[in-house]
Amino acid sequence: MNKFKTENYYRELNKDSLCSCDYCRNYYKEVKAAYSELSDHLAGMGVDIEKPFETIPLEPYEGNIEYIAVQYIVIGNAADFKSEDVYGVHISIADSHPMTDIDEEHYVIVITPIRLKWAV
Ligand SMILES: [Zn+2]
Questions:
Q1: CA dihedral 23, 47, 109, 30 (to 10 degrees)
Q2: Is residue 42 scored above 90 in pLDDT?
Q3: Quick one: which of 30, 67, 92, 102 has the fewest CB in 10 Å?
Q4: Would you call the peptide bond into 113 cis, given omega within 30 degrees of 0 as the criterion?
Q5: What is the 8-class DSSP label of residue 90?
Q6: Ligand 1 centroid distance, CA of 26 (Å)
Q7: Cβ atoms of residues 66 and 58 within 8 Å
Q8: What's the gap in Å between 37 CA and the centre of ligand 1?
Q9: What's the gap in Å between 52 CA and the centre of ligand 1?
Q10: Tell me, what's the pLDDT at 120?
């Protein structure tokens, strides 16, 4: 990845442009505190954990919610990326994802699973 360009992308990505459904709002609110080491790890790639591209949630259950996959955009060449397991979470290249609308070279990673409190 290109950490500098990825950081820039996330810095310029306005929170107001992100999905505002309850599942995503819960994710933005809870994920950093619940997964602080993962947050630091993603920040090392330039990725802001609070600005996912796409979340794929299950239904909330007894005050908790599992996201079976969460996708993030990374600017740079996918050939530089290797799948890895960090802090109980698997990070890999997404096989499929919505259109990204980004001109420069980029790819989409998927992290799975993420379990959070249902706090919305
Ligand atoms: Zn959403």
A1: -20
A2: yes
A3: 102
A4: yes
A5: E
A6: 9
A7: yes
A8: 24
A9: 9
A10: 86
90 CA → ligand 1 middle, Å? 21
How much is the pLDDT for 80?
Answer: 85
Dihedral-angle region of residue 25 (phi above 0 means left; psi in -120 to 50 means alpha; beta otherwise): alpha
Beta strands 114-117; 84-86: pairing state: unpaired
Domain ranges of the chain: 3-117
Distance 38 CA to ligand 1 centre (A): 21
Evaluate whether 15 touches 40 at the Cβ level (below 8 Å): no
pLDDT digits (tens, 9 = 90+) for 55-106: 999 999 999 999 999 999 999 999 989 999 998 999 999 989 999 989 999 9
- The pTM for the full model equals 0.95
